[in-house]
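User: I'll paste a sequence; please echo it back and then give the predicted structure.

Assistant: Echoing your sequence first, then the prediction.
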Amino acid sequence: MNLSTKAVLAFLACPGVVAGLAPVLIARTCPGDGRFRDASFVPLAIGALGLLWCVRDFFVRGRGTLAPWDPPKRLVVSGLYRRVRNPMYLSVLAIILGWSFYFGTWRLALYLGVVAVGSHLRVTLGEEPRLRAQFGPEWDRYARSVPRWIPRLRAR
């Protein structure tokens, strides 16, 4: 299977399920009033654009995919990754926030919290130790200079 096919499959399997399928299924089980529907398009658009940008950077610069079974071969430190270490997770959270506004159901807000906590645990307990082992001093320099969750709006 070539890299572009792997990238598409990883996109559908990971953020496609977490930020797409799961919110729709949750909203179907607990319909809301949609009173904040107009506000949903900003986080949905920001999240979708951020996610696509990150997937592209993983594919082009990192020579891998967002999937844990086929991660980038090179450490990606450009694009959105210059501002924050986890822009892909932040993009997924923005999409879920947009869906919670769109559907107007409290269950999606709860799901957003669960995904945020799960993302933090996955990053701190799984991804960061693996990246430190894989990239060594390059990762350490990057981790010291770029924040994990709150984006730096101006480059140093």
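The mean pLDDT is 88. The CA atoms of residues 51 and 91 lie 5 Å apart.
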